[in-house]
């Protein structure tokens, strides 16, 4: 039996598929055992994952070898050697291993001395030229870091994804300034079988692949899947180029130039950990191995477009999965983790990222649009999506509806003639020299039809261009513009499509319907971005598979995620509209996540002593809640009829708000004091119905104290069940050099009375101040969340904003 995860709007997020096997079948299990992982035994400063002396590293390597030997001894003393297959030893962020066993053997392991936890593996399925300017990097963050040629210098971003294309210009090490060796980074570079192209070049500083669990499960096919870090899918190259792709790379697609691309931190190094594959996705034990290796290597930032479609049922609470616990140890080691929120929006409780130690990233639209128009012979102008050239000259051309050009016998073909997917079903004599009119139907969502095939059909029939139009609302569709080598326009509005059809049908044979298509190759910047994309997953955050609300704000931040240009793999079959291209423009929270990872690298470069919690705080408290026109941020939602509408964005849409890199480099105050590994353990121990023995078994740490989620020193306040009143404290630390006086103001959540003390304070550089926030139910309980905010305004110009989400409860 298999329990399948729902596929959401965007194809670019990795979702977990939990598979229950037949009782006699072997499967992979993740096992944690007694003993301290290396990260905990050899703690490094939370400010730097590479900061310990070489003598300590030698001791650590000896210790990890000892742990691996213990794993081998446990297995060999429990089972015959032919009855199991060990895939990985985890020694850095977890102490344990991944092993292929029969379910009966897994039960035996659970009862073995020294074994703490046994968890079934999870199968995974796969779900920029303008954003640097949109985020203000060229005039803000980059100059502070020495310009684009220095932005991200000496910072390593780990990308756990589908690998990388080392030949892509976004990752070339050529340039006026060479990449010197990086001290204290210990990643390695695999060789790629059958390829003479080196995988690493100084820009790409390490590259490994992880597929042992996929091979053990029989999912990996050596004839289709590359057992190397080389990217055959495109997704890994795309995310890596967004985070740290070179500056000023020309974007060409179908022979057209679309500007110059740049990563957020163009001088940062890239360390590649391939754990996902084109044909089957991946397995969680492979991903955990990648996290373990990345942390051991010493990456500064991890970018993860991977997560579950719902909290796992194999552990009672979402935070106790091997994935989340491994990331908790990575954060303890000083690694900042950005994870995609998921593509389950706009529906509530669809987050794919749960834990308070992870930066969960929502996806937004920026202000760039590729618009175009079709001009009709009756004088009407209908708007659509562009990225295609205009019809030749100024003259108009006859229109022909695909159904009217269909061949007599077309019943044996895969698609309706109206979809224009197969030229054989249309009569070339009727189409030649005309604009072909095609229908956008559900086949484009679920049946394999593509806009590029429409263009190919029109071209093969010698049409001068095409127009693709909708006849009904299609909820879940994003209508992304596709670069095309011939004139074409996609009309996405049903009313405009109706006007086009009415004009065509009202024309007589003596007065044929005529039109011309405008030039859609140049973008416009007239949007009101950012806006929350329709597919971006929404909060509130949940704590278990029954979807009970947590007191952890999710998502945490909004990053650009829609229509993002980035590196692509020409051989990729994943996006048919970009097959054969070296760049693709795609959407998803997977695209938003490396934006945040890249910004984190810029902050780490400017402030190498900042912890992951301080970096996250700087991003959230300086994030914008207004669009570029100064109006409140809006979030896309569906109306009752399925059309997209805009509602005011809440913290469950945007977390702290839309990322503002320049402000995040100089936040004034950060919420960092008290956010330590022990506090997160205290958080786990405070959860109602949590088995504290399970906390010990999974994390290796005992419950010595309790700290609720609302009491973590995070840059937000979320209370899912406020009874009567509650006092919350938050401690802020001045990370600016100068003394500053802050005034506290706030907007009360509806139905909640609020007080903050002190209301005015002066704080010196390096000093901390604790704020006491009293929240009291002041109106009848509605069962709905209400939202507010606190604002700390400094007399030196710093503004620190904290979002609030509160739901009053009866007990």
From TrEMBL:
Catalytic site: 161, 235, 590
GO terms (BP aspect): proteolysis
Subcellular location, record wording: Secreted
Signal peptide (UniProt feature, chain positions): 1-23
Gene Ontology molecular function: any one: serine-type endopeptidase activity
Domain Peptidase S8/S53 positions: 152-628
Domain annotation Inhibitor I9: ranges: 29-125
InterPro entries linked: Peptidase_S8/S53_dom, Peptidase_S8/S53_dom_sf, Peptidase_S8_Asp-AS, Peptidase_S8_Ser-AS, Peptidase_S8_subtilisin-rel, Peptidases_S8_3, S8pro/Inhibitor_I9, S8pro/Inhibitor_I9_sf
GO cellular component: extracellular region
Keywords: Glycoprotein, Hydrolase, Protease, Serine protease, Signal
The organism's place on the tree of life at top rank: Eukaryota
One Pfam family in the UniProt entry: Peptidase_S8
CDD domains: PA_subtilisin_like (cd02120), Peptidases_S8_3 (cd04852)
Segments forming domain Subtilisin-like protease fibronectin type-III: 711-806
Protein family membership: Belongs to the peptidase S8 family.
Official protein name in the record: Uncharacterized protein
Annotated source species: Ceratopteris richardii (Triangle waterfern)
